[in-house]
Fold Glycogen operon protein.
Amino acid sequence: MSSQQSPVITPPGLLSTDLDDLGVRFGPEGGTLRVWSGSANAVELVMFDTADLDWATATVPMEPLGGGVWAATSKRLKPGTVYAIRVDGPPGPGATFNSGTLLVEPYSRGLVSGGYGDWRSVAVDGSFDWGGVAKPATPMDRTVIYEGHLKGMSKRHPLIPPALHGTYAGLAHPAMIDHFLSLGVTAIELLPVHAFITEPRLLEHGLSNYWGYNTLNFFTPHAPYATDEARRQGPEAVLREFKGMVRLLHEAGLEVILDVVYNHTSEAGIGGPRSSLRGIDNNAYYRQHDDGAYIDVTGCGNAVNTATDAASRLVLDSLRYWANDVQIDGFRFDLAVTLGRDEIHHFSPEHPLLRAIVDDPALAGVKKIAEPWDVGMGGWQTGNFGDGWHEWNDRYRDRVRNFWLSDVDYARRASTAPVGIGGLATRLAGSSNTFSAERGPVASVNFVTAHDGFTLNDLVSYDVKHNLGNGEQNRDGADTNRSFNHGAEGRTDDERILATRRKAMRNLMGTLLLSAGVPMITAGDEFGRTQRGNNNAYCHDSPLTWLSWDHAPWQRDLLSHVQRLIGIRHENPALRPVRFARLDEHTPSASVMDWYDRHGEMMSSERWTNPAHRTLQYVATSTPEAEHPNRVLLMVHGNESPIEVTLPAVDGVTRFVSQWSSADERPSDEHASYAPGDTVSLEGTSMHLFRAE
């Protein structure tokens, strides 16, 4: 990496008033367009006929206002106007100006296409009647995230009209809302819905960029997810359908979180498309060496250079727009480490953009979730983001998978597991070894699966990835999955193996939903969907990735378990502390945890680490500020041999009432009661939860 950034002309600060009101604003004199380019010699606004995108109806030179901002006002620029910009500038290392290239204006609220790679911006009014519907504002400790693909969730739903399948309107259909509410989740996290395109390489193979991590524009909703009727009416109607989806989900009490990709764009590496930022001011918007070669810390060909004020402000303004104009409740930042890299490309949690996102009053109350890594040097930063940030916790994912899957696989081969239960206990309790006391357990977004990787079903059914259908000779996708097929690779008719897999799924889901922190479920895992062993299905827009709503009895049973677990989590504040408890102190909104072994005795240091002792009981006692106190006991048994466990004597507890067991094929409605000192039989590799009274 070069230690010097390519020289750029920067505005006087991230929050400079010079950078206010970029994009199109409407007024009595028509529309005014403001564009930033610190290095340009000339900028033009070009307007087009709405029916013929090749027919330029007017060209207006833009005037420099200072601070790198260029502006033009025209009565022709009004809602519905199709337009583009052209930018000219001096040659030099990293400069890619071309005065003949039509460019997407970065703050566009709407886009239309004249063919692959041929885009025009559309001026959008954006007015919408929210009908007084407010954001649900669900506290983080009560949040249960459901991560899914907007199209894939509703594409095959039999109760949704075909015209709405896979659309914004389809996601807000009563059938989908009923599922979300019956499941008990509180927030729908959507894979990217900013306008994106498919890479030429995938098109050549008859594939597509299904996931959408290839952003064309940070302000425009992806038009192909709108209904045909909205698309015929144009970008204004597409945006209106998107807002209508948000309003209906909010009416149901469901938050909407967007997975946002600000770390790179669809312009890819040098030689890729010059569609927007590259043609406007390449040196300012992308990280480069002195000779103009890109510094790629994302693995996608380019990296947005948030060390410059213009690039950071573009990100911040996009967030403000979606959070306020579109009423989005939160954001999950893809490869968020890239956003926190400075002028010498080092990560800092105090990066001006990261702090601005947290401190901006316009983003108050908005959930900010970092994917705390990228592929550059020093790119793994789990636990290192600052106050106000929540993070995907890959350490949690790996430990939980190890305990229930790869450790069990190892034990079958070597007669004992490689590690004891101490590491899992730390994750159950909120990952205090990863997140500071000031941030607490809700800084951790816990997950066992995500869109990227095996589904829950595939995690217990495949030892290795099966990605040949991606066209890369099975080279793509993670090789280390910490999965376990339980005796057969993929499909099998062996009922013993199938039963063990089902219990493993219940253990994984039970751990996720009973752990301190914020749980995230991947769409379809609640009924055990499969991608047939493909752990990188980003390029498949097909039944492989669309949710199937035709479920076998065992899938309905798994769904019932997930519903029961989310309900238990909601009812028991001891399972969702906001703060870490402190020894010999009363900490409000924490959970005091006491740890016991299989005999009901306090855990010894030897048993924490001994691989032969993978059985644990813990009692969590809440110290809530706004709820009734409560107490639960969870048994965890990580060996495949059954075991007898003695319930501990706990001050103030006279009985333990069964709430849930992973050993049950279907959740039991019988809530057996036990006294301290009673024994409970646990199946091999199982969990059992009790309410302590």
